[in-house]
Amino acid sequence: MRDFLQIEFKKTYQKQAEHAYFSPGRVNLIGEHIDYNGGLVMPCAVTLGTYLLVSPNNEEVFRFRSVNFDEQFEIPLQKDYKKDGKTWYNYPLGVIQHFVKDDKSLKGLDFLYFGNIPIGSGLSSSASIEVVTAFALNDLFECDYSKLDLVKLAKSVENNFIGLNSGIMDQFAVAFGEKNKALMLNCDTLDYQAVDSNLGDHILAIINTNKPRKLAESKYNERVLECKAALKALQQELDIHNLCDIDTATFEKYEHLITDAIVKKRAEHVIKENDRVKLAGVALSNNNLAEFGRLMYASHDSLRDLYEVSGKELDTVVEYSKTNPDVAGARMTGAGFGGCAIALVKESSFEKFAKEVTEYYTKKIGYAPSVYSSLIGDGVGLLKEEQAIRV
């Protein structure tokens, strides 16, 4: 694996890479569109991710190359950096900008990225790139950021440099992920609990609809504004700071304050989804996959009907999963508008599941999905020899 990356690095820069890092992607098991509403989410790191090889140069420039993209970029060390169109290297460039703004002393570097997260799939390839870059710079230049500092830094890059009003879940999950554990994260306080995720004889199937999601150009920001409108309406009588400060019973008592029917639907999803995460934590802790699966299906139905961020592609995957007795549960994951669904599938039946969901989906949609299996993996760190590249 290192041989492949070193060959690519030497081909690109005519020298060996001196440092190697890995940051995973993530899936959110349950708790969707909660992170910017101050509630509970339950993501986990996956074994797909972003590999980064780095070597210093003596030319006081940053060079960005990727095995996945044709676009290359080179820029000298300077005191300020600006977003450059919509290219992939804006993510590491934004991280460098944050380090510079914090008065960190950097030197020239040659970067080579390789990712096996499907682009536009909703598995947080952007957060993975941001976090691996921040981790590498922090390590190389001994900047003394804590891991939580790096998470907040990467979120700031996403919000302020890239221009997407996302919450902190993605960066947190790829930084703090633990093998065979889900993270029940309070997005308001950043307190979290690592929940044992013993899937027994099931594995995590990731089904990429292959409908690209251009999230920054989607209705994601519109949903954020709708939630803010719901919160403002509820604050007429409730002393709350986030929608997730109340439970379903309280919402049903005060929902009359929200006069816009669409905004009310958005709030109903958020508040009920937050309650589902609490129930899901109990179910996973008790190894009750049947209950966890029921909650996954309920989550998807809410995202489809109340939050309206699903679509025929994601719905088709979940529709098929409900007919398969070897699937404990399934749902869209990520922001929606395309991207991926996940399913808990019996390991012994995974190949059959992959074949059948592909046939069912292709017949209804007209093109095939991509189906992956994943373990629940560790967060960002130095690249380990045993971390094989899955392509």
From TrEMBL:
EC number: 2.7.1.6
Domain GHMP kinase N-terminal, residue spans: 90-177
Pathway connected to this protein: Carbohydrate metabolism; galactose metabolism
Catalyzed reactions per annotation: alpha-D-galactose + ATP = alpha-D-galactose 1-phosphate + ADP + H(+)
Ligand binding (substrate): 32-35, 220
Residues given in the record as ATP binding sites: 66, 120-126
UniProt cross-references to Pfam families, sorted A to Z: GalKase_gal_bdg, GHMP_kinases_C, GHMP_kinases_N
Cellular component, GO annotation: cytosol
Residues annotated as binding Mg(2+): 126, 158
Location of the active site: 170
Role: Catalyzes the transfer of the gamma-phosphate of ATP to D-galactose to form alpha-D-galactose-1-phosphate (Gal-1-P).
Homology family: Belongs to the GHMP kinase family. GalK subfamily.
Name recorded for this polypeptide: Galactokinase
